[in-house]
């Protein structure tokens, strides 16, 4: 079967060859900014329109699809030149994009002429279109841009790793007190985004998600590394000690192993002053990590606005493209930053209370006589940490960090009272001093109205305030309340043995284990007899 273009007048081909040679000479011998194939595409388009207007009406006497046959031949001739050009493309260049876009435009012009010419034919021009295999210039552009994106995302990932390896989280690195590595990563992202929108392509909206997805992976990696190794609440809070009877003569610590006091004191002081960048997990350095995640979260909003502006200025924007895509950009990063900040806030809080100040909280507070082991030393050292955090942490996150420290200090205070080991023993008379100490603790965070809001302090001090009255309740009443709660929850009768309630660590004045622990630390004979008889806990005080 003969091709529909077979037998076409050779004059068109000869004219086409002249155009090819002319275009190449223009590109080589004159100062012309357009590549030869771009000029050729323009000339062929002009030639095709001339053919349609001048020659085709004459040739239609012999071939009703004369214009279609002409443009199909031109399409094939240019396609041969384009195929050779595409084979030699190794990377995205301005010349490559210009040629491919010119080829795409030429093909649309030629197809349009063929379709219009064949509108009244039996097959509607399908036979002519089959003679015009698509150039797929747009697909080539897309693949080149995707390769361009991959190269730059890989480079960003490499830079992210390199900068993170060198990062020491020094609070003195800049006045904003966030990591220089984040500044560098965000700068590279900004430059890459600018270069992307400078690409002379018509499909920015379609390819943008791939670039942003690469950005998102790199920043997620950064966020993960920024919080890695910093610990969590469970990393620092001690495990619950076994239920035991208080023994005022014992030197055993129920929560921590005993350490040399001079070593612990030296360690605590060095951590409070660790602002020289030597300790990447010191409190000031953890604050820098928080500031860095906050800065990333802020910059995401700036980047989002810039992307919208760039899309509005980009070529070939379809209606609704911007609005539909905006909400899905960086949708995982903002929550990741928030979760990272929350983890770091808790790590700082519990590290300070249960690790850095453990030597005061566990080895000093209420050990021996309550009157001689009050909370003042703990408050003095805690205040130093609060000063460091107030001067280091970003003001948008400062309240959250200090609130978490307050919550951790309340947890530590209760743990001392209810699970502080056998070296602590309390009388009903001690309860007033303990209540006063807790007020001193809350006052530290209120700071005469310059610290945390009073309603926030009240909110998180509710549990402690509800349990403190148990310390002043008489022992007989505590025993009766404990017995009643146990029997009600277990369904046992008063004659059966009272089961030992499980330790949940969720302290509550109506929870049996909480009341039992108050009894364990109650320094009187009635409590000792009850515990010995009921659970065979040592009677000795």
3D shape: elongated
Number of helices: 22
End-to-end CA span: 112 Å
Radius of gyration: 39 Å
Helix coverage percent: 55-70%
Q: In terms of per-residue confidence, which ranges show pLDDT below 50 for 5 or more consecutive residues?
A: 1-10, 25-31, 250-278, 318-327
Strand portion: under 5%
Number of DSSP-assigned strands: 0
Oligomer: single chain
- H and E order: HHHHHHHHHHHHHHHHHHHHHH
Task: Provide the structure class.
Answer: mainly alpha
Mean pLDDT: 81
Mind describing the biggest β-sheet? none
InterPro entries: Munc13_1, Munc13_dom-2, PATROL1_C, unc-13_homologue
Domain MHD2: 372-482
Protein name: MHD1 domain-containing protein
Domain MHD1: 97-240
List the helices and strands and how they pair.
Elements: H1 10-29, H2 36-59, H3 66-87, H4 94-117, H5 126-130, H6 137-166, H7 180-198, H8 204-227, H9 233-236, H10 261-272, H11 283-313, H12 321-326, H13 333-356, H14 358-361, H15 376-392, H16 395-419, H17 430-446, H18 454-460, H19 462-472, H20 475-490, H21 512-520, H22 525-535
Task: Report on this structure.
- The protein is mainly α.
- The chain has a domain at 10-135.
- Helices cover 67% and strands 0% of the residues.
- Helix 6 (137-166) runs parallel beside helix 8 (204-227) and helix 17 (430-446) runs antiparallel to helix 19.
- The protein starts with 9 loop residues before the first helix and ends in a 6-residue tail after the last helix.
- Residues 97-240 form the MHD1 domain.
- Residues 372-482 form the MHD2 domain.
- This is MHD1 domain-containing protein.
- InterPro entries: Munc13_1, Munc13_dom-2, PATROL1_C, unc-13_homologue.
């Amino acid at each position: 079967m003969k091709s529909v273009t077979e037998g076409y007048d050779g004059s068109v081909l000869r004219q086409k060859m002249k155009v090819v040679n002319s275009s190449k000479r223009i590109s080589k011998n004159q100062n012309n900014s357009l590549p030869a194939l771009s000029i050729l595409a323009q000339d062929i388009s002009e030639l095709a329109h001339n053919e349609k207007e001048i020659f085709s009406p004459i040739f239609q006497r012999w071939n009703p699809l004369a214009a279609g046959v002409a443009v199909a031949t031109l399409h094939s001739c240019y396609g041969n030149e384009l195929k050779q050009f595409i084979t030699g493309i190794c990377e995205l260049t301005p010349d490559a994009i210009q040629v491919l876009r010119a080829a795409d435009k030429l093909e649309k012009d030629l197809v349009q002429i063929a379709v219009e010419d064949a509108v009244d034919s039996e097959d509607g021009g399908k036979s002519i279109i089959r003679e015009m295999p698509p150039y797929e210039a747009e697909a080539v552009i897309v693949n080149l841009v995707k390769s361009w994106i991959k190269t730059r995302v890989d480079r960003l990932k490499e830079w992210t790793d390199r900068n993170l390896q060198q990062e020491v989280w020094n609070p003195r690195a800049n006045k904003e007190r966030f990591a220089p590595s984040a500044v560098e990563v965000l700068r590279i992202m900004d430059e890459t985004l600018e270069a992307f929108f400078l690409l002379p392509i018509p499909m920015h909206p379609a390819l943008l998600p791939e670039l942003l997805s690469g950005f998102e992976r790199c920043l997620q990696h950064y966020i993960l590394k920024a919080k890695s190794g910093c610990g969590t609440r469970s990393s620092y809070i001690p495990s619950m000690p076994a239920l035991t009877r208080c023994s005022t003569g014992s030197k055993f610590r129920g929560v921590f192993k005993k350490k040399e006091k001079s070593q612990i004191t030296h360690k605590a002081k060095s951590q409070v002053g660790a602002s020289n960048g030597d300790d990447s997990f010191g409190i000031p350095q953890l604050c820098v990590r928080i500031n860095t995640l906050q800065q990333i979260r802020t910059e995401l909003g700036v980047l989002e606005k810039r992307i919208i502006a760039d899309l509005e200025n980009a070529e070939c924007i379809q209606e609704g493209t911007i609005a539909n895509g905006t909400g899905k950009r960086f949708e995982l990063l903002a929550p990741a930053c928030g979760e990272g900040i929350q983890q770091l806030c808790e790590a700082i809080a519990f590290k300070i209370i249960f690790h850095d100040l453990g030597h005061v909280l566990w080895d000093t507070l209420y050990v021996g006589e309550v009157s001689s082991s009050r909370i003042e030393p703990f408050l003095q050292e805690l205040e130093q940490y609060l000063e460091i955090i107030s001067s280091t942490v970003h003001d948008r996150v400062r309240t959250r960090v200090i609130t978490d420290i307050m919550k951790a200090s309340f947890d530590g205070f209760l743990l001392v009272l209810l699970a502080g080991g056998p070296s602590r023993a309390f009388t009903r008379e001690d309860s007033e001093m303990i209540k006063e100490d807790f007020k001193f603790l809350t006052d530290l965070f209120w700071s005469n109205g310059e610290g945390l809001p009073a309603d926030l302090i009240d909110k998180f001090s509710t549990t402690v305030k509800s349990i403190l009255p148990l310390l002043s309740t008489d022992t007989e009443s505590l025993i009766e309340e404990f017995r009643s709660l146990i029997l009600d929850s277990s369904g046992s009768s008063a004659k059966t043995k009272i089961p030992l309630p499980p330790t949940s660590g969720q302290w509550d004045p109506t929870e049996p284990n909480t009341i039992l622990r108050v009894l364990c630390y109650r320094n009187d004979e009635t409590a000792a007899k009850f515990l010995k008889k009921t659970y065979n806990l040592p009677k000795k005080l």
